[in-house]
Amino acid sequence: MRLLPGDVLLVVDVQGDFLPGGPLAVPDGDAVVAPINRLGTLFNHVLLTQDWHPADHVSFAANHPGRAPFEQIELPYGRQVLWPTHCVQGSDGAGFAPGLDLPRAELVVRKGFRPGVDSYSAFTEADRHTPTGLAGYLRERGLRRLFLAGLATDFCVAWSAMDAAAAGFEACVIEDASRAIDMQGSLDNAWRTMGEAGVGRTGSHALEARA
Ligand code: VGL
Ligand code: ZN
Q1: Number of structural domains the chain divides into
Q2: Tens digit of pLDDT for each residue in 89-101?
């Protein structure tokens, strides 16, 4: 796949709390930093998302007495996985991963900052209608094709890619520059639903070879 001048690298949630040793560690999550740094030099447009929750966020198990992390509850907008407390606004763990080096980054989209709504997707919050503004940014700037990388493949990367496709953008996930949480078949499920939605799948070496 040959990269075009208007292609976007969307780097999803590469933050301390998702790295090994963090409260919501994605296995091998730190392995995404090196390929993402390399990819960041190939794209004219680099955008990042940052999971950014208030301490009283509805997705934290700690805010639901008697509930444990990874249980699911029903909320007005649907089912919600309860997570360990992570990416609290302004905390060290909400910062980008040590070593992430993306000097071309032109936008950071923060998401999940409404106390009562989670947001896996870079485009639309978990209530499925509150927009983050990213689609407007891309459209206004004439950017149409997105390559996604980061954490986690089966949650924030997948939801972002699905919403990108639904909003009429081309979306392709860079597999080796992403890592998954993979709970209860969530990774297989994510690849299947992304495939059905027309989301592509590539590798960083294929992009580097054709850049
Ligand atoms: C994520 C769970 C909760 C992610 C964020 O970045 O995939 N997963 N918050
Ligand atoms: Zn989160």
Answers
A1: 1
A2: 999 999 999 999 9
